[in-house]
Amino acid sequence: MRPATKDAPVSIRLQPERYKWRIISLLFFAMMINYVDRNVMSFVMVNDDFKRTLLGLRPIDPLGAAELARFKEIIGLADMVFKIAYASGFLLVGWLIDKLGTYRGFKWAVGVWSIAAMAHTAITGAWGLMAARFTLGLGEAGGMPTAIKTISEWFPQSERSLATGILNAGVNVGILITASLVPFLVESFGWRVAFLVTGSLGIVTFFLWKAMYHPYPVPSGTLPPPPIRVSWGTLLRLRQTWVYAAGKFLTDPVWWFFLTWLPTFFNENKHFAEPIDLKNLTGPFLIIYFISDIGSVFFGWLATSLQKRGWSANLARKSTLLLTALCVVPIFLVSTTTDIAFAVALLSLATAGHQGWSSNLQTLPSDLFPQEVVGSVSGIGATFGAIGGILLAGASGFIINRYGYAPLFMGASVAYLLAWLVLVVSLPKLRPVRLDFFH
Fold it and tell me: Does the reported pTM lie above 0.85?
Protein backbone atom coordinates (compact mmCIF):
# COMPACT_ATOMS: atom_id res chain seq x y z
CA MET A 1 0.00 0.00 0.00
CA ARG A 2 1.39 3.42 -0.92
CA PRO A 3 1.88 6.07 1.75
CA ALA A 4 -0.85 8.59 2.52
CA THR A 5 -0.34 12.10 1.22
CA LYS A 6 -2.49 14.75 2.85
CA ASP A 7 -0.93 17.77 1.17
CA ALA A 8 -0.74 16.58 -2.44
CA PRO A 9 -2.32 19.04 -4.90
CA VAL A 10 -5.75 18.12 -6.23
CA SER A 11 -4.38 17.81 -9.78
CA ILE A 12 -1.93 15.15 -8.61
CA ARG A 13 -4.56 13.24 -6.67
CA LEU A 14 -6.81 13.17 -9.73
CA GLN A 15 -4.15 12.40 -12.37
CA PRO A 16 -1.40 10.28 -10.80
CA GLU A 17 -0.81 8.42 -14.09
CA ARG A 18 0.20 11.65 -15.78
CA TYR A 19 2.14 13.03 -12.81
CA LYS A 20 4.33 9.94 -12.44
CA TRP A 21 6.16 10.87 -15.66
CA ARG A 22 6.84 14.30 -14.21
CA ILE A 23 8.30 12.55 -11.18
CA ILE A 24 10.61 10.40 -13.30
CA SER A 25 11.71 13.54 -15.19
CA LEU A 26 12.61 15.13 -11.87
CA LEU A 27 14.55 12.03 -10.82
CA PHE A 28 16.27 12.02 -14.22
CA PHE A 29 17.51 15.57 -13.62
CA ALA A 30 18.54 14.87 -10.01
CA MET A 31 20.63 11.80 -10.90
CA MET A 32 22.10 13.67 -13.87
CA ILE A 33 23.49 16.30 -11.49
CA ASN A 34 24.51 13.59 -9.03
CA TYR A 35 26.81 12.08 -11.65
CA VAL A 36 28.07 15.42 -12.88
CA ASP A 37 29.35 16.13 -9.37
CA ARG A 38 30.69 12.61 -8.94
CA ASN A 39 32.52 12.44 -12.26
CA VAL A 40 34.17 15.86 -12.49
CA MET A 41 37.40 14.61 -10.93
CA SER A 42 37.81 11.94 -13.61
CA PHE A 43 38.38 14.70 -16.18
CA VAL A 44 40.12 17.18 -13.89
CA MET A 45 42.73 14.57 -12.96
CA VAL A 46 44.12 14.71 -16.50
CA ASN A 47 45.14 18.34 -15.86
CA ASP A 48 48.80 18.88 -14.93
CA ASP A 49 48.06 21.77 -12.55
CA PHE A 50 45.71 19.53 -10.57
CA LYS A 51 48.38 16.82 -10.45
CA ARG A 52 50.96 19.24 -9.11
CA THR A 53 48.53 20.54 -6.48
CA LEU A 54 47.87 17.05 -5.13
CA LEU A 55 51.56 16.21 -5.16
CA GLY A 56 52.54 19.45 -3.39
CA LEU A 57 54.66 20.61 -6.33
CA ARG A 58 55.25 24.10 -7.67
CA PRO A 59 53.76 25.08 -11.08
CA ILE A 60 57.25 24.95 -12.62
CA ASP A 61 58.18 21.54 -11.22
CA PRO A 62 58.38 18.68 -13.77
CA LEU A 63 56.07 15.68 -13.70
CA GLY A 64 58.25 12.63 -14.16
CA ALA A 65 57.39 8.94 -14.11
CA ALA A 66 57.79 8.71 -10.33
CA GLU A 67 55.49 11.68 -9.73
CA LEU A 68 52.83 10.35 -12.08
CA ALA A 69 52.94 6.92 -10.45
CA ARG A 70 52.47 8.52 -7.01
CA PHE A 71 49.61 10.62 -8.38
CA LYS A 72 47.80 7.47 -9.58
CA GLU A 73 48.14 5.93 -6.15
CA ILE A 74 46.71 9.06 -4.52
CA ILE A 75 43.76 9.04 -6.92
CA GLY A 76 43.14 5.37 -6.23
CA LEU A 77 43.14 6.03 -2.49
CA ALA A 78 40.87 9.08 -2.88
CA ASP A 79 38.47 6.95 -4.91
CA MET A 80 38.56 4.36 -2.15
CA VAL A 81 37.81 7.02 0.48
CA PHE A 82 34.81 8.18 -1.56
CA LYS A 83 33.48 4.65 -1.70
CA ILE A 84 34.08 4.03 2.01
CA ALA A 85 31.91 7.06 2.75
CA TYR A 86 29.43 5.90 0.11
CA ALA A 87 29.17 2.48 1.74
CA SER A 88 29.01 3.98 5.23
CA GLY A 89 26.23 6.28 4.12
CA PHE A 90 24.19 3.34 2.92
CA LEU A 91 24.35 1.82 6.40
CA LEU A 92 22.03 4.64 7.41
CA VAL A 93 20.43 6.10 4.33
CA GLY A 94 18.14 3.22 3.33
CA TRP A 95 16.67 3.02 6.81
CA LEU A 96 16.49 6.83 6.99
CA ILE A 97 14.57 7.11 3.73
CA ASP A 98 12.12 4.40 4.77
CA LYS A 99 11.62 6.34 8.03
CA LEU A 100 11.59 9.97 6.80
CA GLY A 101 10.16 9.40 3.36
CA THR A 102 11.58 10.24 -0.04
CA TYR A 103 10.87 13.97 0.10
CA ARG A 104 12.86 14.83 3.23
CA GLY A 105 15.50 12.13 2.71
CA PHE A 106 16.48 13.34 -0.74
CA LYS A 107 16.64 17.00 0.32
CA TRP A 108 19.22 16.03 2.93
CA ALA A 109 21.26 14.05 0.40
CA VAL A 110 21.32 16.78 -2.25
CA GLY A 111 22.35 19.44 0.25
CA VAL A 112 25.30 17.46 1.58
CA TRP A 113 26.67 16.34 -1.77
CA SER A 114 26.36 19.85 -3.31
CA ILE A 115 28.32 21.49 -0.49
CA ALA A 116 30.96 18.76 -0.72
CA ALA A 117 31.23 19.12 -4.49
CA MET A 118 31.87 22.87 -4.22
CA ALA A 119 34.38 22.27 -1.39
CA HIS A 120 36.69 20.64 -3.95
CA THR A 121 37.60 24.18 -5.07
CA ALA A 122 39.54 24.66 -1.82
CA ILE A 123 41.78 21.59 -2.20
CA THR A 124 45.48 22.28 -1.57
CA GLY A 125 46.79 18.73 -1.33
CA ALA A 126 45.99 15.05 -1.03
CA TRP A 127 44.42 15.29 2.44
CA GLY A 128 42.00 17.99 1.33
CA LEU A 129 40.96 15.83 -1.59
CA MET A 130 40.33 12.89 0.75
CA ALA A 131 38.10 15.01 3.01
CA ALA A 132 36.09 16.41 0.09
CA ARG A 133 35.63 12.97 -1.52
CA PHE A 134 34.54 11.45 1.81
CA THR A 135 31.83 14.08 2.34
CA LEU A 136 30.70 13.80 -1.27
CA GLY A 137 30.32 10.05 -0.85
CA LEU A 138 28.16 10.47 2.26
CA GLY A 139 25.77 12.81 0.47
CA GLU A 140 25.59 10.87 -2.79
CA ALA A 141 24.70 7.70 -0.89
CA GLY A 142 21.16 9.07 -0.64
CA GLY A 143 20.64 9.44 -4.38
CA MET A 144 19.89 6.04 -5.86
CA PRO A 145 18.01 4.42 -2.92
CA THR A 146 15.65 7.41 -2.83
CA ALA A 147 15.11 7.21 -6.57
CA ILE A 148 14.41 3.46 -6.50
CA LYS A 149 11.97 3.84 -3.61
CA THR A 150 10.22 6.69 -5.43
CA ILE A 151 9.81 4.51 -8.52
CA SER A 152 8.34 1.73 -6.36
CA GLU A 153 5.80 4.25 -5.04
CA TRP A 154 4.72 5.66 -8.38
CA PHE A 155 5.09 2.82 -10.91
CA PRO A 156 3.54 -0.67 -11.13
CA GLN A 157 5.90 -3.64 -11.30
CA SER A 158 5.58 -4.06 -15.07
CA GLU A 159 6.80 -0.48 -15.71
CA ARG A 160 9.58 -0.24 -13.14
CA SER A 161 12.44 -1.43 -15.34
CA LEU A 162 11.49 1.17 -17.98
CA ALA A 163 11.30 3.88 -15.32
CA THR A 164 14.66 2.76 -13.90
CA GLY A 165 16.12 2.75 -17.42
CA ILE A 166 15.06 6.37 -17.84
CA LEU A 167 16.54 7.14 -14.44
CA ASN A 168 19.85 5.56 -15.41
CA ALA A 169 19.77 7.56 -18.63
CA GLY A 170 20.02 10.62 -16.41
CA VAL A 171 23.26 9.18 -15.06
CA ASN A 172 24.66 8.95 -18.57
CA VAL A 173 23.51 12.43 -19.53
CA GLY A 174 25.33 13.67 -16.45
CA ILE A 175 28.51 12.02 -17.69
CA LEU A 176 27.96 13.51 -21.17
CA ILE A 177 27.58 16.97 -19.66
CA THR A 178 30.73 16.42 -17.63
CA ALA A 179 32.67 15.28 -20.69
CA SER A 180 31.48 18.31 -22.66
CA LEU A 181 31.66 21.01 -19.99
CA VAL A 182 34.56 20.15 -17.70
CA PRO A 183 37.39 20.08 -20.30
CA PHE A 184 36.25 23.52 -21.49
CA LEU A 185 36.09 24.91 -17.94
CA VAL A 186 39.49 23.47 -17.01
CA GLU A 187 41.20 24.74 -20.15
CA SER A 188 39.55 28.18 -19.99
CA PHE A 189 39.31 28.95 -16.27
CA GLY A 190 41.23 26.30 -14.34
CA TRP A 191 40.26 23.17 -12.47
CA ARG A 192 38.91 24.97 -9.39
CA VAL A 193 36.24 26.74 -11.43
CA ALA A 194 35.19 23.38 -12.89
CA PHE A 195 34.41 22.08 -9.40
CA LEU A 196 32.65 25.30 -8.40
CA VAL A 197 30.37 25.48 -11.43
CA THR A 198 29.35 21.85 -11.41
CA GLY A 199 28.87 21.74 -7.64
CA SER A 200 26.51 24.71 -7.76
CA LEU A 201 24.16 22.73 -10.01
CA GLY A 202 23.21 20.68 -6.96
CA ILE A 203 21.66 23.77 -5.38
CA VAL A 204 19.32 24.01 -8.37
CA THR A 205 18.41 20.35 -7.83
CA PHE A 206 17.66 21.01 -4.16
CA PHE A 207 15.11 23.73 -4.93
CA LEU A 208 13.52 21.81 -7.81
CA TRP A 209 12.97 18.80 -5.57
CA LYS A 210 11.60 21.01 -2.80
CA ALA A 211 9.15 22.70 -5.16
CA MET A 212 8.00 19.83 -7.36
CA TYR A 213 8.07 16.51 -5.52
CA HIS A 214 5.02 14.97 -3.83
CA PRO A 215 4.67 11.35 -2.61
CA TYR A 216 2.09 9.17 -4.28
CA PRO A 217 -1.47 10.14 -3.23
CA VAL A 218 -3.83 7.52 -1.83
CA PRO A 219 -7.62 7.71 -2.03
CA SER A 220 -9.36 9.85 0.57
CA GLY A 221 -10.20 7.92 3.71
CA THR A 222 -7.51 5.27 3.16
CA LEU A 223 -5.47 4.67 6.28
CA PRO A 224 -1.68 4.52 5.93
CA PRO A 225 -0.14 1.11 6.55
CA PRO A 226 1.13 0.45 10.06
CA PRO A 227 4.85 1.28 10.29
CA ILE A 228 7.22 -1.65 10.30
CA ARG A 229 10.73 -1.67 11.67
CA VAL A 230 13.06 -4.06 9.95
CA SER A 231 16.69 -4.53 10.93
CA TRP A 232 19.44 -5.38 8.52
CA GLY A 233 19.81 -8.63 10.44
CA THR A 234 16.27 -9.60 9.45
CA LEU A 235 16.79 -8.67 5.81
CA LEU A 236 20.13 -10.46 5.63
CA ARG A 237 18.44 -13.72 6.62
CA LEU A 238 16.74 -13.71 3.22
CA ARG A 239 18.25 -15.23 0.10
CA GLN A 240 16.67 -12.50 -2.02
CA THR A 241 18.70 -9.86 -0.20
CA TRP A 242 21.97 -11.70 -0.69
CA VAL A 243 21.36 -12.27 -4.40
CA TYR A 244 20.73 -8.58 -4.96
CA ALA A 245 23.76 -7.64 -2.85
CA ALA A 246 25.97 -10.09 -4.78
CA GLY A 247 24.89 -8.60 -8.10
CA LYS A 248 25.81 -5.13 -6.90
CA PHE A 249 29.10 -6.31 -5.34
CA LEU A 250 30.28 -7.90 -8.57
CA THR A 251 29.19 -5.27 -11.10
CA ASP A 252 29.09 -1.81 -9.48
CA PRO A 253 32.91 -1.66 -9.23
CA VAL A 254 33.17 -2.09 -12.99
CA TRP A 255 31.08 1.01 -13.62
CA TRP A 256 33.07 3.02 -11.10
CA PHE A 257 36.28 1.87 -12.73
CA PHE A 258 34.99 3.23 -16.04
CA LEU A 259 34.01 6.55 -14.47
CA THR A 260 37.30 7.06 -12.65
CA TRP A 261 39.95 5.70 -14.99
CA LEU A 262 38.75 5.87 -18.62
CA PRO A 263 39.91 9.47 -19.20
CA THR A 264 43.38 8.57 -17.93
CA PHE A 265 43.35 5.31 -19.92
CA PHE A 266 42.74 7.23 -23.15
CA ASN A 267 45.19 9.97 -22.23
CA GLU A 268 48.09 7.61 -21.40
CA ASN A 269 47.51 4.68 -23.75
CA LYS A 270 50.67 4.16 -25.79
CA HIS A 271 49.03 1.63 -28.11
CA PHE A 272 46.89 4.23 -29.86
CA ALA A 273 48.28 5.69 -33.06
CA GLU A 274 47.48 9.24 -31.86
CA PRO A 275 47.57 10.41 -28.23
CA ILE A 276 44.41 11.87 -26.70
CA ASP A 277 44.75 14.90 -24.45
CA LEU A 278 42.13 16.73 -22.39
CA LYS A 279 40.94 18.76 -25.39
CA ASN A 280 40.26 15.60 -27.41
CA LEU A 281 38.55 13.54 -24.71
CA THR A 282 35.08 14.98 -25.32
CA GLY A 283 34.44 13.19 -28.63
CA PRO A 284 35.03 9.58 -27.48
CA PHE A 285 33.12 10.12 -24.25
CA LEU A 286 30.13 11.67 -25.99
CA ILE A 287 29.90 8.54 -28.16
CA ILE A 288 30.45 6.07 -25.30
CA TYR A 289 27.93 7.54 -22.91
CA PHE A 290 25.35 8.47 -25.53
CA ILE A 291 25.22 4.81 -26.59
CA SER A 292 25.13 3.74 -22.94
CA ASP A 293 22.10 6.03 -22.58
CA ILE A 294 20.41 4.13 -25.39
CA GLY A 295 21.26 0.83 -23.71
CA SER A 296 19.82 2.00 -20.41
CA VAL A 297 16.45 2.92 -21.87
CA PHE A 298 16.34 0.06 -24.40
CA PHE A 299 17.02 -2.76 -21.96
CA GLY A 300 14.69 -1.18 -19.42
CA TRP A 301 12.01 -1.02 -22.10
CA LEU A 302 12.77 -4.58 -23.24
CA ALA A 303 11.95 -6.19 -19.90
CA THR A 304 8.78 -4.11 -19.63
CA SER A 305 7.77 -4.99 -23.20
CA LEU A 306 8.35 -8.71 -22.68
CA GLN A 307 6.11 -8.69 -19.61
CA LYS A 308 3.39 -6.87 -21.50
CA ARG A 309 3.64 -9.58 -24.17
CA GLY A 310 2.87 -12.23 -21.59
CA TRP A 311 6.31 -13.25 -20.35
CA SER A 312 6.60 -13.82 -16.63
CA ALA A 313 8.54 -11.23 -14.63
CA ASN A 314 11.04 -14.00 -13.82
CA LEU A 315 11.76 -14.91 -17.45
CA ALA A 316 11.69 -11.34 -18.77
CA ARG A 317 14.05 -10.05 -16.11
CA LYS A 318 16.59 -12.90 -16.32
CA SER A 319 16.63 -12.98 -20.13
CA THR A 320 17.24 -9.26 -20.32
CA LEU A 321 19.98 -9.45 -17.70
CA LEU A 322 21.71 -12.20 -19.70
CA LEU A 323 21.71 -10.08 -22.86
CA THR A 324 23.22 -7.13 -21.00
CA ALA A 325 25.90 -9.35 -19.43
CA LEU A 326 26.94 -10.63 -22.86
CA CYS A 327 27.41 -7.05 -24.07
CA VAL A 328 30.25 -6.57 -21.58
CA VAL A 329 32.20 -9.75 -22.41
CA PRO A 330 34.32 -8.32 -25.31
CA ILE A 331 35.64 -5.48 -23.12
CA PHE A 332 38.88 -7.38 -22.40
CA LEU A 333 40.05 -6.49 -25.94
CA VAL A 334 40.15 -2.76 -25.15
CA SER A 335 43.52 -2.89 -23.40
CA THR A 336 45.31 -4.38 -26.42
CA THR A 337 43.76 -2.69 -29.45
CA THR A 338 45.62 0.03 -31.35
CA ASP A 339 42.45 1.32 -33.00
CA ILE A 340 40.76 4.12 -31.05
CA ALA A 341 37.49 3.65 -32.94
CA PHE A 342 37.40 -0.04 -32.02
CA ALA A 343 38.13 0.76 -28.38
CA VAL A 344 35.31 3.32 -28.34
CA ALA A 345 32.94 0.78 -29.92
CA LEU A 346 33.78 -1.89 -27.34
CA LEU A 347 33.42 0.56 -24.47
CA SER A 348 30.12 1.83 -25.86
CA LEU A 349 28.75 -1.70 -26.02
CA ALA A 350 29.99 -2.49 -22.51
CA THR A 351 28.64 0.67 -20.91
CA ALA A 352 25.30 0.17 -22.68
CA GLY A 353 25.28 -3.35 -21.27
CA HIS A 354 26.10 -2.14 -17.79
CA GLN A 355 23.35 0.47 -17.77
CA GLY A 356 20.84 -2.04 -19.11
CA TRP A 357 21.99 -4.47 -16.42
CA SER A 358 21.64 -1.79 -13.77
CA SER A 359 18.16 -0.80 -14.97
CA ASN A 360 16.95 -4.35 -14.43
CA LEU A 361 18.99 -5.30 -11.38
CA GLN A 362 17.80 -2.23 -9.49
CA THR A 363 14.18 -3.25 -9.95
CA LEU A 364 14.77 -6.43 -7.94
CA PRO A 365 14.17 -4.80 -4.52
CA SER A 366 10.74 -3.58 -5.66
CA ASP A 367 10.07 -6.91 -7.43
CA LEU A 368 11.00 -9.03 -4.41
CA PHE A 369 10.15 -6.94 -1.34
CA PRO A 370 7.23 -4.93 0.05
CA GLN A 371 7.44 -1.22 -0.68
CA GLU A 372 7.92 -0.47 3.02
CA VAL A 373 11.44 -2.00 3.00
CA VAL A 374 12.56 -1.24 -0.57
CA GLY A 375 14.76 1.64 0.61
CA SER A 376 16.51 -0.56 3.16
CA VAL A 377 17.13 -3.39 0.68
CA SER A 378 18.40 -0.91 -1.93
CA GLY A 379 20.72 0.48 0.74
CA ILE A 380 22.08 -2.97 1.54
CA GLY A 381 22.74 -3.71 -2.11
CA ALA A 382 24.37 -0.34 -2.65
CA THR A 383 26.56 -0.90 0.40
CA PHE A 384 27.84 -4.19 -0.99
CA GLY A 385 28.37 -2.53 -4.37
CA ALA A 386 30.38 0.19 -2.65
CA ILE A 387 32.43 -2.40 -0.73
CA GLY A 388 33.35 -4.03 -4.04
CA GLY A 389 34.22 -0.57 -5.35
CA ILE A 390 36.37 0.13 -2.28
CA LEU A 391 38.39 -3.03 -2.84
CA LEU A 392 38.90 -2.25 -6.52
CA ALA A 393 39.62 1.44 -5.96
CA GLY A 394 42.23 0.71 -3.30
CA ALA A 395 44.05 -1.67 -5.63
CA SER A 396 43.50 -0.06 -9.04
CA GLY A 397 46.31 2.49 -8.91
CA PHE A 398 48.82 -0.17 -7.87
CA ILE A 399 47.53 -2.65 -10.49
CA ILE A 400 47.77 -0.07 -13.27
CA ASN A 401 51.29 0.94 -12.25
CA ARG A 402 52.53 -2.66 -12.19
CA TYR A 403 50.46 -4.55 -14.78
CA GLY A 404 48.63 -1.95 -16.84
CA TYR A 405 44.89 -1.87 -17.51
CA ALA A 406 44.53 -5.41 -18.91
CA PRO A 407 43.70 -7.20 -15.59
CA LEU A 408 40.96 -4.66 -14.83
CA PHE A 409 39.31 -5.01 -18.22
CA MET A 410 39.53 -8.81 -18.05
CA GLY A 411 37.81 -8.82 -14.67
CA ALA A 412 35.08 -6.56 -16.02
CA SER A 413 34.39 -8.89 -18.95
CA VAL A 414 33.34 -11.81 -16.71
CA ALA A 415 31.80 -10.01 -13.72
CA TYR A 416 28.28 -9.73 -15.15
CA LEU A 417 28.00 -13.33 -16.30
CA LEU A 418 29.13 -14.45 -12.86
CA ALA A 419 26.51 -12.25 -11.20
CA TRP A 420 23.84 -13.59 -13.56
CA LEU A 421 24.75 -17.18 -12.66
CA VAL A 422 24.45 -16.33 -8.96
CA LEU A 423 20.96 -14.97 -9.60
CA VAL A 424 19.76 -17.92 -11.69
CA VAL A 425 21.18 -20.61 -9.39
CA SER A 426 20.13 -18.94 -6.13
CA LEU A 427 16.67 -17.78 -7.23
CA PRO A 428 15.23 -20.13 -9.87
CA LYS A 429 12.00 -18.18 -9.37
CA LEU A 430 11.72 -14.52 -8.35
CA ARG A 431 9.44 -15.10 -5.38
CA PRO A 432 8.41 -11.90 -3.54
CA VAL A 433 8.79 -11.75 0.23
CA ARG A 434 5.40 -11.32 1.92
CA LEU A 435 4.85 -8.27 4.12
CA ASP A 436 3.61 -10.43 7.00
CA PHE A 437 7.11 -11.96 7.21
CA PHE A 438 8.24 -8.71 8.90
CA HIS A 439 5.45 -8.53 11.46
Answer: no
